[in-house]
Amino acid sequence: MPDERRLPADLIHALEEIVGARFVRTTIEERALYAYDATIRRSLPDAVVRPKTTQEIAALLPICGAHHIPVVPRGAASGLSGGSVPLRGGIALDLTRMDAILEISPQDLLAVAQAGVNTQRFADAVAAQGLFFPPDPSSALASTLGGNAAENAGGPHAFKYGVFRDYVLGLTVVTADGRILHTGGRTVKNVSGYDLTRLFVGSEGTLGVITELTLKLIPKPQAKRTLLTAYDRIEDAAETVSAIIAAGMQPAALEFLDDASMRVVESYLHLGLPVDAQALLLLEVDGPAVAVTEQAEALIALCRTHHSREVEVAQTPQQAEQLWRARKSISSAVARIKPSKISEDATVPPSKLPEMVHRLQEIGRKYEVDLVIFGHAGDGNLHPNIMCDERDAQEMTRVWQAVAEIFATTLDLGGTLSGEHGIGYMKAPFMAWEHAPAELDAMRAVKRAFDPLSILNPGKLFPEDVPPWPVPLPTYPRTPPSA
Ligand SMILES: Cc1cc2nc3c(=O)[nH]c(=O)nc-3n(C[C@H](O)[C@H](O)[C@H](O)COP(=O)(O)OP(=O)(O)OC[C@H]3O[C@@H](n4cnc5c(N)ncnc54)[C@H](O)[C@@H]3O)c2cc1C
Fold it and tell me: How many helices and strands, by DSSP H and E, does the chain display?
């Protein structure tokens, strides 16, 4: 990582005046801690700034703008598309000091929290009051609410309950020129003007800095039941998922693991998973106690119709927790195979899931890469993960080709580049594959309206802003072989 850039002394001084000298860090050691997220590229910021209040952020952004210095909002840096990597240096704006849960209101079924609040801590605080906040990214122990909003995070429960955006009633956002916007409000129904809340959710730190969130809560389901079912043929597992959806069933979670993911998890945790099976489905139903029993029985019957080998039903919350450990530990488990990991979240319509799984396996074989497949099958959101070694140039060429083919295949099947991880720098080169020029122009116009100097998280989202893909990209849509 080259360390050539330096910020003007008057800018550093101004930032210190705003947030306090302790919270402006410029040593190489401290900046190195902010050079990465959960993707593989590294890039040093020129300074790390750790504000405590919305007002501090409103004061510092115009000063950065006047110096044309990039500002990269950052939560826990657990992102899988490179959103918080400061590709063009500038300020890494660490939001984690803004970590107060300001209100939990059982009367209004909402909570207000600052952007740096840890996702799991928030869910636990809400649960302690008998309420439920469904968005549950598997990274919840690390991630922040601000990062979740900026990426519009999903998770296992998105199939039944929706994604992060479905729970955001309102936001406090600071725009690049230092204006403080309060979007939305405290009501579920709110059609007063343009829906700025939805615009900022999923904007990946490129339109404004989210400092506070008003989040919708729901009553905690009375009961839940967790099931694990194994298949000898991966196609049967994928077809079970399609059949569950077609039958109008709505499990709270419907997760898929292929044999490779299952084996790495088993060798890591020794949970007694059926490693000779080709695929696993992890299902959860929730709701009133009687309905849960009925739903679980109906699901077991449907799994059996589709040739499931065995169905394990958790008898206690501890057993359920153990089954979820298998799913939630995949990322850590696969990280032991090779030094690096490319984690994708290609998403297809649920009816295309069987074909997508099949084609992902073909891509793994064609490019001879270590590919495991798992994910939120219920909403077609698969996570093909490729384990690799960045020091092996030949392997990396095949990896980058495989990733491009995964995106092309996803789009061929009517899917999208990202179901929940966002675009960042990792998928920006492919944006023109999914979006027509007019659509990208509309997005650029929105960006210019909120951030005319392009200081907020530059080098993300737009294909022209990012470094070229490491291998030549094919044209897309693909040319038919006969043409
Ligand atoms: C093991 C593992 C499992 C994961 N599982 C899931 C999953 O199930 N579902 C899922 O959706 N994601 C998952 N992720 C990805 C990641 O955790 C999410 O994208 C999460 O929302 C990022 O939160 P963060 O606080 O770490 O944000 P960061 O990574 O720090 O930032 C992400 C993006 O948001 C922007 N940003 C951060 N905070 C703010 C703010 N306050 N205002 C404006 N912009 C901001 C950043 O600039 C960046 O573009 C997983 C990641 C890992 C490593």
Answer: 16, 18
